[in-house]
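Record type: monomer structure entry
Structure origin: computed from sequence
Chain ID: A
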Amino acid sequence: MNKSFVLLKLVISVAFFGMLVQVSSDSFAGEPVKIIYDTDMGNDIDDVFALTMLNNLEKRGEVDLLAITLTKDNKYAAPYCQFINEFYQNPNVPIGAVKDSGVTADDGKFLRQSLEAKDEEGKPKFPFFNLAEDKTEYFEATALLRKTLAAQEDGSVVIAQVGFSTNLARLLDSPADEYSPLNGRELASKKVKYLVAMAGNFVDKHKEYNVVNDVPAARKVFSEWPTDIYCSGFEVGREIKMIGVAMLNDYGYVKYHPVKEAYSLYRGLDPKAEQCTWDLTTILFAARQDRGYFDLSEPGEIVIDEEGYSTFEPKDDGKARIFKVNHDQIVRIQEAFEWLCSERLLDCQCESCKADK
């Protein structure tokens, strides 16, 4: 065969391959999902897992964590979120604390305890974060919501609410301010792409925790929120479990891991124990909405009655949909949770990881 022909064929093949790579890259490269994480951090361990997922997804380029706002009215909740973010080398995410709600003001089982944890020699387990010397600026939650939304492009922000509806209800009622000439309802309508919430129980006659702790706020948000709402009910996360053996085996790349510490304080380290994954479902949906992890109901309305019971009512022009999962999806989701929560930092600077390099 003529050498010139072979060379020409090779050049054409390489050029075609380059075009194919470029087309593929352009076709599948997506902008990270902009997320505000609204959480009652400290009441259950699934909030910690959800924040861990957000940090790992941001490292992957799938998520842009714009802000964290808190609905648990406890002084350790905001520093704890900063503590987790600093472990994941993501210290600049602004954090806003709820003010004067009085809702679940207790310390819980792992907030203060994790921040003050000592080893057998009485030394701090997590010396990278000193609570007494913490200089982080913590904002008021509603103000931070307004500030964050006002700075974003229209229709670009996903709010993941996995706690009480306190902050979002206050946002809806907020007036124009230095951040935006729009009131809260107008600001949410303009800037939010959709709200994804872990709230309600749409299968059993059961008052769900996130709803019942601030019923007036939940009634307001689910009846007045101006954008689409995707809701993961209690019955969804109840069926998807984080298994105890994963906690024992998957976080050993550091001597003391904050997530394992919190889990141990909250539930213990029984390899047979199982933890429901309510809050994690909202993060997985927000980050990977098009991956088929969840099915969705027909459009409808989420109705919260005065006692805190929740129902979903199908309606052709409704703005809400609720999550549904089958057995195959549950298996996929569980595996995704375990990987995304325990993923090792590629550039981790802890002593254990330095020793491995």
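Annotation 1: The chain has one domain: 37-356.
Annotation 2: The two ends are 50 Å apart (CA to CA).
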